[in-house]
Structures are given as structure tokens and as C-alpha cells.
From TrEMBL:
Residues 221-244 are annotated as: Disordered. It comes from Posidoniimonas corsicana. SMART domains: Ami_2, PGRP. One of its GO terms (molecular function) is N-acetylmuramoyl-L-alanine amidase activity. Keywords: Signal. Residues 1-21 form the signal peptide. Residues 33-188 form the Peptidoglycan recognition protein family domain. Gene3D superfamilies: Peptidoglycan recognition protein-like (3.40.80.10). This is N-acetylmuramoyl-L-alanine amidase.
Amino acid sequence: MKTARSTLVTVMLISAGTASADPEQRADVPRPAKFVTAADWGSRPDSIPDERRHTPKHVTLHHAGVLWTADRDPVQFIRNMQSWGKKRPELEEPPRNTYWPDLPYHFLIAPDGRIFEGRPLEYEPESNTKYELAGHLGVELMGNFEQQRPSPAQVESAVRLVAWLLAKHDLPLDAITTHARVAKGQTSCPGRDFARYFDAEKPQFAEWVGAVLKGKPPAIELGPPLDGGPTQLITETRKPDAVR
Ligand SMILES: [Zn+2]
């Protein structure tokens, strides 16, 4: 039953191309608002080989690690990332010169809360760090949360997106993880000011997701700036004046 259904879903996804066919969506967890499909933002991936297919088991949070300034355009940022991935063999030195046929992440969330659809869910992600990629759904928030703070809209979209993904793939709350946790000692991603909500002692992000899964509002409360951490919200970051 399960297998037959998965096959059907696969067939539908193939026939739908980049459109987001979603026959398994759980009634009580709607697809989040502000969702921008791959077709809508003009995604132009190359095809991903069949051996990269996987079964989602974790939802893994990332930040871009690039300081976001108010003059940036999220759509341009994503298009650039996608075309850079396809040109890595020409542009990068080993070991970073592997070819990425599509975006490394399955979703990318802009500071205004828009959720951009990236790599199709049925393929494993890409990474410059070493961990078992199969099974991970990558959700990236634009910005660098070592230097700036995520916006409330961005965090709310992340919470609602992760709840939708857990419901869709029938995954438990502890399927939520972060890049630093799965690639130990290799990265500080998703950055201090966002990573704090995934603390094992007080996993606030998972609590907010849990509320959405129960059909309740997530009651997200972002903490104050951390000691020695960033103070400025991503939406407040302006490009520094050019030094002459
Ligand atoms: Zn990351």
C-alpha cells in the first residue's frame, strides 16, 4: 500500500515537473503562505541523476552564511546560487568543484518570510561538509546569523514550513536538526542567533512546530540578543557606505 502510493507520488511528481504536486498534504497542516514555487521564480535546474533519490528522514536547518543587506533581491540570490552550482567544476578548486545540478537546499526563506521552492524533495541535498546526505531535507534561511538576527517573519515561515514537511512525510519532531549537529565540528551553520532555538535543553523551534502540528498558533517569541551576539535584525541591515 505504502509502496504503491509512493510510486504513484513519484510518477505524479515526474509528470508535474517543477510544479508542487502534493497529494499527501495533511488536512490540518496547510502549505504555508508566501510559498513561491520553483516554476514561479523561474528555476532552471539540470536533471538530477536517479541514484541521488532518497527518502526524507530529517529536516535540517541552515543559514546562507552570507550577510544579507536590504538592497539584495531574494530571487536574484537564488538564481545566482543555482547557476553557480551548475558551474562549480569550472569555477571552484577541489574539493569544492563538484557539479550541483540544482540548488543544494530544498527550500530557501527570504527575510520577508517568502518561502522559495528549491531542489525537489525526492533528491538528497548537496553540501561542502561531510555527512550522509541521503534523508535530509535542507531548509535555508537567507542571511548570516553569526552577524545578524533572523526576522520574525522568516522564523515563522521556517516553523510553518517544517511543520508542513513533518506532516507530509509523517516524521516526528526529533527529525528536526541543524547543519552543525549533523556535520559536527565542521560548521557553525545555522549561526548563533538562530541555532539557539534548537538547544537540546530548550528546543523552542520544535515546540513551535509542535503547536502548528496540533493546529494551534505557534506563539513564536524570539529571544533578546545573546551576549556578544548580533543585535540587528536582518531586515534592518543596510549596505555599509562605500569606503573611499
Ligand atoms: Zn548549513
